[in-house]
Amino acid sequence: MTHAANPIPSFATAEDYLSMLELAPTPLIPIHLQADSPSILCKCEFMNPSGSTKDRIATFILTKAWREGVVRRGDLVAEVSSGSTSIAMAMVCAHLGLKFIAIMPEGVSRERILMIQGFGGEVRFTEKSLGMQGANNACQELAASTKVFLPRQFQNTDNAQAHRQSTAAEIARWVKAHAPASVNTIAFTSGVGTGGTMVGLYHGLRDHGFNVLPFAVRPVASGKNILCEDCFSSLEQCSFSSRIPGVLDGMSQIYRPKEIEHLQEIEVSDELAMSTTRALIRKGFPVGPSSGLNVAAALQVAGTLGENTWLVTILCDRMERYFSTELFTHWR
């Protein structure tokens, strides 16, 4: 007996791949860490394909470059990143047939290196003592001698635009669908690295008619004696704390605090950020330290908000890239 053919569609053209890269919305889930703690709306960005919110900027920047003819199959892309941005860029480059080089200081976790290499990317290391600035210098030297597309995550305004058009829009639609009509303000907490999430959410939520209360979160060292090789300070020397990767001071050219109305800057101890991360994992949310930082900050400010304000934060990335770091090695 024969059956009528029902062929599976093939991805034959670049446009097919570009369409496939459109990211599905990630869930916005209310989380209680303890029975007496407030509910925090958490955007589960760790559920993006490569496991982080950086999938949004990698997809937006590279597909835009492709559609505008800036890059074509076989071209080279290079980015300075010791973490999730490189992983996300490697994934999108794999879809589009682009070559990718991640440039980073020596000493990053093995998991992150393997993820980049698994997507076919190359990892080039710079001297550990020079930190991220040394990696940035090496990237500029590469660009001076080789035809290469540089996404430039710390200065490319498309970084923020990606979150303005997608992350913020998804949050706004969810709140409009679930909140009482009296809710007219969205507050959110976010650590600042490249500044893309902070700037994109601020403008994007305003685009959808909400008042916005942004909280920029700074991790501060708790003084706990942790072995240096388990920390990130040697790699990301401009970090506020050596224990929370990706939250940096002074590298962003996108984040301009004076241009963000009602911005408040708050501090959270890195020890509290780490313990909150572990509490989230125990609740079934497989996240990394920056997620714990954001949630700890949200819990800190929740009681200060008015009844017409809903509070949101971002669960930034998945835990598997931290298995060999302090998050797990010092967990008893």
Task: Itemize the secondary structure elements and their pairings.
Layout (H helix, E strand, L loop, with lengths): L13 H7 L7 E4 L8 E5 L9 H14 L8 E5 L3 H13 L2 E7 L4 H9 L3 E5 L4 H15 L12 H21 L6 E7 L4 H12 L3 E10 L43 E6 H13 L6 H13 L7 E7 L10 H4 L3
Parallel strand pairs: 2-9, 3-4, 4-5, 6-7, 6-9, 7-8
Antiparallel strand pairs: 1-2
Specify Rg, calculated over alpha carbons. Answer: 20 Å
Q: What separation lies between the terminal Cα atoms? A: 61 Å
Strand order of the largest sheet: 1-2-9-6-7-8
**SSE string:** HEEHEHEHEHHEHEEHHEH
User: What is CATH's topology name of the largest domain?
Assistant: Rossmann fold
Number of domains: 2
Specify the helix fraction band.
25-40%
Instruction: Write the CATH architecture name of the largest domain.
Output: 3-Layer(aba) Sandwich
Let me know the average pLDDT. Answer: 87
Shape: globular
User: What is the total tally of β strands?
Assistant: 9
What's the number of helices?
Answer: 10
Please outline the major beta sheet: 6 strands, mixed
**Uncertain spans, ≥5 residues at pLDDT below 50?**
225-241
Bin the strand percentage: 15-25%
Structural class computed from helices and strand pairing: alpha/beta
Descriptive notes:
There is one protein chain. With 332 residues, the protein is α/β, with parallel strands linked by helices. It has 2 domains: 202 residues, Rossmann fold (3-Layer(aba) Sandwich), CATH 3.40.50.1100; 92 residues, Rossmann fold, CATH 3.40.50.1100. Helix content is 36%, strand content 17%. The strands form 2 sheets. Strands 1-2-9-6-7-8 form a 6-stranded mixed sheet. Strands 3-4-5 form a 3-stranded parallel sheet. α3 runs parallel beside α4 and α6 packs across α7. The radius of gyration is 20 Å and the shape is globular.
